[in-house]
From TrEMBL:
<keyword id="KW-0963">Cytoplasm</keyword>
<feature type="binding site">
    <location>
        <begin position="189"/>
        <end position="190"/>
    </location>
    <ligand>
        <name>substrate</name>
    </ligand>
</feature>
<comment type="pathway">
    <text>Amino-acid biosynthesis; L-lysine biosynthesis via DAP pathway; DL-2,6-diaminopimelate from LL-2,6-diaminopimelate: step 1/1.</text>
</comment>
<feature type="active site" description="Proton acceptor">
    <location>
        <position position="199"/>
    </location>
</feature>
<dbReference type="Pfam" id="PF01678">
    <property type="entry name" value="DAP_epimerase"/>
</dbReference>
<feature type="binding site">
    <location>
        <begin position="200"/>
        <end position="201"/>
    </location>
    <ligand>
        <name>substrate</name>
    </ligand>
</feature>
<feature type="binding site">
    <location>
        <position position="14"/>
    </location>
    <ligand>
        <name>substrate</name>
    </ligand>
</feature>
<keyword id="KW-0028">Amino-acid biosynthesis</keyword>
<feature type="active site" description="Proton donor">
    <location>
        <position position="75"/>
    </location>
</feature>
<dbReference type="InterPro" id="IPR001653">
    <property type="entry name" value="DAP_epimerase_DapF"/>
</dbReference>
<feature type="binding site">
    <location>
        <position position="66"/>
    </location>
    <ligand>
        <name>substrate</name>
    </ligand>
</feature>
<comment type="function">
    <text>Catalyzes the stereoinversion of LL-2,6-diaminopimelate (L,L-DAP) to meso-diaminopimelate (meso-DAP), a precursor of L-lysine and an essential component of the bacterial peptidoglycan.</text>
</comment>
<dbReference type="GO" id="GO:0009089">
    <property type="term" value="P:lysine biosynthetic process via diaminopimelate"/>
</dbReference>
<comment type="subunit">
    <text>Homodimer.</text>
</comment>
<feature type="binding site">
    <location>
        <begin position="76"/>
        <end position="77"/>
    </location>
    <ligand>
        <name>substrate</name>
    </ligand>
</feature>
<feature type="binding site">
    <location>
        <position position="171"/>
    </location>
    <ligand>
        <name>substrate</name>
    </ligand>
</feature>
<protein>
    <recommendedName>
        <fullName>Diaminopimelate epimerase</fullName>
        <ecNumber>5.1.1.7</ecNumber>
    </recommendedName>
</protein>
Length: 260
């Protein structure tokens, strides 16, 4: 029997089990264990699990798993929560540099509530008739709707995820324009296979897609998700978008020991 010390964090309702794995004791390839820890009935409950590990040059390394137990691509809200965890562990003070699966990230502790995270530059964008596809560290489908509250995000998100993106899948974001620089967003997340309350790489994709398709002229966009408000700022460049920052709340919720 093993005892796993864990911390629980949330960023606009996107929630994560955090484990300090600087001692490399966590069973990283145990998909079933990670899935169990994220299970909301039999485990702690979370949209994903994140390991904080040592890095030779940066403050730390981020290893991200979806709730299905599989290691996945970048998680923006998770990255912001991990910076808060690193601050709690006294690895960082006001600024951080860490490596994630999509490369190096810089981050700033704004205050006791908010963390700002620099996202990867966006170079890939496909504009179709009814949607935009882009990669903000994770793959995202962005589709405008006029009726966000009525939409069945689970049913329509799952359909698009399975039928447009095949086995690899993508995250599916439904978006409604609020004003010239504010959008409401609901996301079906790959690997959770359900709607989550917020998705950081998702709102980043929405902000950039809305700018690229002239639905906003602003370089700082407000995104209203079911779990809270996030801001994304960015600069357009020859290759796409750069200097992209995702800002919003990231908080510790509780800690404990899991017996497996
Ligand atoms: N919640 C995340 C995205 C996590 C990764 C995603 N589920 C995937 O597998 O692509 C975020 O805040 O960015």
């Amino acid at each position: 029997m093993s005892h796993i010390h864990f911390y629980k964090y949330q960023g606009t309702g996107n929630d994560f089990v955090m484990i300090d794995n600087r001692d490399q004791l966590f069973s990283k390839n145990d998909t079933k264990l990670i899935e169990l820890l994220c299970d909301r009935k039999f485990g702690i409950g979370a949209d994903g699990l994140i390991l904080l590990e040592n890095h030779p040059t940066a403050h730390f390394k981020m290893v991200y798993y979806n709730a299905d137990g599989q290691e996945s691509t970048m998680c923006g809200n998770g990255g912001r929560c991990l910076v808060r965890f690193a601050q709690f562990l006294e690895i960082i003070k006001d600024t951080a540099t860490f490596e994630a699966i999509d490369g190096m990230h810089h981050a700033r502790v704004v205050d006791d509530i908010s963390i700002s995270l620099q996202m990867s530059d966006v170079t890939e964008m496909r504009i179709e008739n009814t949607y935009v596809y882009t990669d903000t560290g994770s793959p995202h489908h962005v589709q405008l709707t006029e009726n966000l509250t009525e939409i069945d995000v689970y049913k329509e998100g799952k359909y698009l995820r399975d039928n447009v993106y095949g086995k690899a899948g993508a995250n599916i974001n439904f978006v409604q324009l609020q004003d010239s620089n504010t959008f409401k967003v609901r996301t079906y997340e790959r690997g959770v296979e359900d709607e989550t309350l917020s998705c950081g790489t998702g709102v980043t994709a929405v902000a950039i897609a809305m700018h690229k398709t002239n639905h906003t002229a602003s370089n700082e966009v407000t995104l209203e998700t079911p779990g809270g408000v996030l801001k994304v700022s960015f600069e357009a460049c020859d290759t796409g978008y750069e200097n992209i920052w995702l800002t919003g709340p990231a908080l510790q919720v509780f800690k404990g020991t899991f017996t497996a």
